[in-house]
Amino acid sequence: MDRWEEEDGAAGAGTVVARVVYASRAEARGGIYAQMESIRASALRHNEPAGVATALLYQAGWFVQWKEGPADAVLRIMDRVATDPRHRDLRTVHRSRGPRLLCGPWSMAIVQSGETPFDMERRVLALKREVDAGEVFTPPAIWRRLSTPLRHPGSLLQQEADAFQRVLVCSAQGSDAFALVEWLARRHGADVVRRRFAGGHGQDVGTDYIDLLQDGRLLRVIAMARHGLHLPLTRAFLPDYSHVVLLLAEDADANAQLMVRVLSALRPLEDPPALLGIARTAQRHAEPAALAQRFGLDYASAEADVTHPAGCWQELQPLLAGERVQ
Ligand SMILES: Cc1cc2nc3c(=O)[nH]c(=O)nc-3n(C[C@H](O)[C@H](O)[C@H](O)COP(=O)(O)O)c2cc1C
């Protein structure tokens, strides 16, 4: 367990930190991934000892950066970053004091989007206008509005742009979660949004999502590689999900490993999402359900072939109804 987890799980719980999110126009020279890795190396050198956590996003020619930590350390680092020639036009879109939401020093994300830098700029400016007019957002809501806003036409019918149900799907083996999102996209004629996340030490993971209208409700279904569950950025968004869907394997060890990852991610949450296990046979639920119960998590189950998205969704979809939308 590293210092961040200790702080998050025990003594530091409830600690109030300064939280800042800003957007800036990237002046990319060379590959963006290499550039982000070099920023990561600097950040791990300077931020970690100062107790500052950062999540850095690159999307459509823009960086978005979310920083949390002791106010003086955040300001000091921001001052240095502001003069970096790798970006310009810095715009602060969020400042608050509150609990630490990033449970580790570094996360980064690259979102593939068909947007131009101009589109992104329009979104940054629109959000800034709302913030300046007194609208209050949490750092995750700001991040979502900049990076992954709800684009479904159904969103125009609702007042709150961020009010939609979010469901995370992880498979114990293989990539069935991603196949489910692909299948939903084909069925709804919608585009999959593809992202890569990485933490402080290499190993990037994929996470794809699709927005859809299901029985009059707007729903975002997010496939996440199981080893992405530990990333601070993933964890910061977990409280926003109504359910974590587990596509269980025939292999009990693989299921147990997935449960360990899921439980360690959900355990620190005050109001964790419900678990929803899908397995080929009822027998496969026994261990995950017992583990969930031991840790006080709701566990609902259904039987379907997890390699078969249509059958899976048929079982899954009614179990998602009537749940929290936030
Ligand atoms: C978008 C962006 C975000 C950055 N974030 C950080 C950061 O959080 N911490 C940091 O030390 N450097 C960050 N940097 C890099 C700094 O501007 C600067 O290059 C670096 O801190 C210099 O330290 P070094 O010489 O030890 O690498 C960032 C740069 C950019 C373009």
TrEMBL record:
| BLUF domain span | 17-109
One Pfam short name: BLUF
GO terms for molecular function, please? Answer: blue light photoreceptor activity; FAD binding
Report what the protein is called: BLUF domain-containing protein
The organism of origin for this protein: Ramlibacter cellulosilyticus
